[in-house]
Write the structure tokens for this entry.
Amino acid sequence: MTEWQPVILSIKVASMSLVLVSISGIVLAYWLRRKDFSAKPLVEALFIMPLVLPPVVTGFLLLLLIGKQGPVGRLLTDIFHTQIIFTPYAAVLAGAVVAFPLMYQSAKAAFQGVDTTLEDAARTLGASEWRVFWTVTIPLAWPGLVAGLVLSFSRALGEFGATIMVAGNIPGKTQTLPLAIYFAAESNDLTMAGFYVLIISVITFSAIYGLNTWARSHNGAWPDKGLF
Amino acid sequence: MLQVNIKKELPGFTLDVQFSVENNIAVLFGPSGCGKTTTLRCIAGLIKPDAGEIINNGKILFSSELQTFIPANQRRVSYMFQEYALFPHLNVKKNIWYGVKSHNQIAEKLYKQLLELLQIEHLTERFTNKLSGGEKQRVALARALMAEPEILLLDEPLSALDEETRCQLQIELKRMQKLWNIPFILVTHDRNEAKALGDKVIYLA
């Protein structure tokens, strides 16, 4: 029998990761855009670490942080009387952490591509910083931001190493698609594994293909070639 | 009357300018890199001078002594950038309306008047990448005036245009200034343009 539960859970987890990543990635990239301080290269190097570290290492570090004895774990116990370790929320966190560098880098490049003269023009026309951000910066950075969102979602959807470290493999509770594929393959259920492989491939391919088609069809100042 | 008296440390030299402008066209003239654009940016509030003051009709826009700095969006100083800086994601109509605070009948009337004066009625639905240099210049001028500025700054407004369009737009700029009766401060490195347009020419060395 086909089990849809991992599919639904994965989409939920990746979507929640995407919300966390999009807000933090866009806000940080925008905020750091014109800041110049001596520790900036260090800060940005730390932001990129989850991209280059083996996911299992990222997972291990997260485990230290949110485990029952970890600083965040203790804080959660003391204040909220709860734990997120080995829950779907830990999977959300793992997905967000590994996807964050992709969102940050995409947003950074997208904001760097926005002509600051246009923002200045908006200011001299009476626009507040808030209005400049929403009516000039975001629309002009939009193609790059969307590319970042798609990459981040796909990355969070496929996360394995960090997820298994902090969320475990609890069927029906924390078993996401990549975990389901691994354990189905391991127990020699190749039909089930193949089915999940097909689903995850279709989702990520559709996202990238859809984005490319959208970017191509968009007229005006936006790129007329694909983004990837 | 606009009074400008500012100092600003720039790479290699210190910009130090004093001048005042009545309701006419003042031209800031000088070689490249002498701080003309920096002066405009200071008046617009896009950068902060190190010292001095900028006062428009008694309203202090900047004063190092009083530690006053009115941000660009509250100065009512419109700025026409060298490459016009039209928003590429908006059509001509939305570009022109960008600086309007309240969409009322007065604004609607001003909009119609500007379209007619600048002969750009037929362009309103176009995106800015489908405009010629002269058309962009006109749209940028309409957008700047639509915000009902108290001062209009123009950075090399004619330098990107061919000879014929340039002569035509020189006449147009003079006419618009007479109609609006606010100070136009224009930057150029072209001596003939400075002479042709300026009621007053300020040399920056």
Notes: The two ends of chain A are 37 Å apart (CA to CA). Chain A has one domain: 5-217. Confidence is low (pLDDT under 50) at residues 219-226 of chain A. Chain A touches chain B at residues 115, 117-118, 120-129, 135-136, 139-140, 219-222 (CB under 8 Å).
